[in-house]
Write a structure and sequence with these properties.
Blueprint lengths: L1 H10 L22 H27 L8 H4 E4 L2 E4 L8 H33 L19 H5 L3 H5 L15 H6 L8 H40 L6 E5 L8 E4 L6
Helix pairs in contact: 4-8
Length: 253
């Protein structure tokens, strides 16, 4: 309370005091504030106005007025319910539509697979992220040979080219032929960025192809469920796999 008085004094406002509760009415609880009474009164009048508006709307309504919902609604146990429309397609037609859907998705998936193979053939996956690093094991007879081992000398190439997994010419090749390709750091950085973009595109196409394969499986599962054969669900559907059902064996003629 003292903190509230100090805060009111700093702001220049008159502090608010609660009205005293008479001892005879203490059992009835605290007195209602004027602000609370005003809010409750406004809410009451708002509801009364809404009820008057609804009553007026009901009186002005034409009892012979027609609206299309009358055709689709019926009274059941005193409650209006909307009739559910019947399926206008036969089971054979639904199966055919599902077959067409599967063919379309499969066609798109095969197109993505071909694009993936073409990108792989262009990039060769030489330094793709996530690929396990290549290992080149050298064998020696003594510890002295291990200590004196120099990988650049052993591979007959320059120390700057040891870290490459591709396009690593030998010293003899460099002496006979001119170095082909980009050598400037800016150009090399640009080529590296282009290669990274191609790998990102390849990853996106691989993810898209996997998603289409899952969609085709889910459509095929829904198509199989149209049969009247007794079936039991074994596994629920997930984002990466369709639902699995076990069908009762039926001998075909």
């Amino acid at each position: 309370m003292a903190a509230a008085f100090r805060k009111a004094a700093k702001s220049g406002q008159r502090p608010h005091r609660e009205r005293a509760q008479p001892a005879a009415r203490r059992r009835l609880g605290l007195l209602e504030k004027k602000k609370d009474y005003r809010l409750r009164a406004d809410d009451y009048h708002k509801k009364q106005n809404a009820l008057r508006a609804l009553q007026k709307k009901a009186l002005d309504k034409n009892p012979d007025e027609f609206y299309f919902k009358m055709i689709r609604a019926e009274l059941q146990d005193g409650v209006h319910t909307i009739k559910q429309p019947k399926d206008e397609a036969t089971p054979e037609q639904v199966k055919l539509m599902r077959t067409q859907d599967i063919k379309y998705v499969e066609m798109k998936r095969v197109a993505e697979a071909k694009k993936i193979e073409r990108l792989k053939s262009e990039l060769h996956l030489l330094d793709a992220e996530g690929k396990s690093p290549n290992k080149h094991v050298f064998f020696f007879d003594t510890k002295k040979e291990v200590q004196e081992f120099d990988i650049a000398t052993h591979l007959d190439t320059l120390p700057e080219l040891v870290g490459r997994v591709y396009n690593r010419p030998t010293i003899a090749t460099l002496q006979k032929e001119r170095l082909k390709g980009a050598t400037e750091p800016a150009h090399l950085k640009k080529l590296a960025q282009q290669r990274k973009n191609q790998y990102d595109l390849l990853k996106q196409r691989i993810d898209r192809e996997k998603a289409m394969f899952v969609v085709a499986q889910k459509i095929q599962t829904r198509k199989d469920l149209l049969d009247k054969t007794h079936k039991v669900k074994v596994k629920n559907e997930t984002k990466n796999s369709p639902a699995i059902y076990k069908f009762k064996f039926q001998r075909k003629r």
